[in-house]
Amino acid sequence: MNARIDERISTALSLSSQQIFPGALSILHQVIENPFVDQAKLPTLYDEAGKIYAQMGRYHKAIEYFLKALSLHDDARYHIHLASTYWKMGDRDKTHRILTQLVAEAPKLSAFLRGLLYANLALSHVYRDFHKEALAYTLESLHSLHEAGIDDWDADMYTNLGLHYLELHQDKKAEQAFRYACSLRNNENLPALAELCRLYMRQGNIDQSLHFARLCLESIWSSSMTYEKEELARLCLLAAHLAHHLGETDLAVRLIEKSQLFYGALHLWKEWQEAQWLSEDWKQSEVVESETFPVQDNLLLHQFVILLDAITAQELLGDTFPLYLDVRVVHAQKLGHSMQLSVQELQWLTYVCRFADLGLTVLESDIIHDPSRSHPAWQQYIKHPFLSVDMLASSRLPREVNTIIEAHHEHFDGTGFPLHQVGHDIPLLARIFAIVDYYAYACVIEQRNHEEILQDIAIQSAGYFDPDVCQKFLAIYMTTSS
User: How far is CA 476 from CA 4, 451, 454, in A?
Assistant: First the structure.
């Protein structure tokens, strides 16, 4: 029995490492509730569940599980995870209290935990504008992590170093740190790209600033997971500064309002107020004239706002809807990579995962939750793929994305809607989306068991789903699920 439980724990950890969070949680909960589980392992299991909840953005559940772990074993690791979660919730004071209580224990901690503690302390000091202290802690953290043989976090650590140097007006060191952080992720490090944009803007190098702004705005929706709201808020502010500098004051103010929306959701009222002062200052200032504002950059900034509107509109469909979209994207990326899709196809697929259901936001809630309750309700519901395309028209997404969105509810056997396409007449990316959407909906909205869902998908092969695509999807999990 214990060997079987250990096997299940290993499976959960493997799923978690692949960002298959609902599956990992499902197995962890089964193990925790198993009366034969080794009680000494419970704190670690609670901690693992807490970390997964935190990565899913379910911070209150994460705190609940970290506190369960601490109730059984007072471990610095659990305190650090708890503090990090409070930070993500915007409770900076509680974060700082927890971390400072651990400083005295730092010499006794393993190199890894010491690095983790110092990294979190650095963020806490940034919030208090103690940038020299934050820089020192980040350097200590980097040293400790390298001592532990860990360099996977270097991209994030060097991004943080760049931030500290930037605040201390050591621009050359900041530039070097940001560029190194970008190189570690093949220029797909959004925070570092955004800060390079800010650095060059501050120096008056608008061409370079625009270059990095383009990289940010072109790549943000291709991310496998939603960026945290605080990061989105900062990106909105950055885009606002660019828009204002280039004479687009109305657009700049609209971007400021978007940043405030995210700061408000996180209860970060200091940042919200600073954004408000900036907005009021811009509204009262003279419009900046610009003759060199590139048309494509104007379109990118407007597209960014439109797609932000789409994301926030869909969040109103339910508390779990953002997670539902995230899970769709993660599994679409996994399946797309396994099928060797091009970078462009992967980006199209991500757009579809993020925005295919925008049309639902204009339907009545009872139609969304029970579309088959009447014939008129069903007729309205099946139009939502077309509604999504219409609502996204001004965003100028690629034509291929619109085609996939229109077909995202088609079934391989022809029983889908709205066009009743059959087999390979359905675009390949729509066939891929159908499987990942089924999985994500069952996991997040219906909260069903991961392995049960995989069995259902196998049964639906050649019915709802393309059997070849279905086989490739299931193959991803063959080594991690029974």
Answer: 22, 13, 11
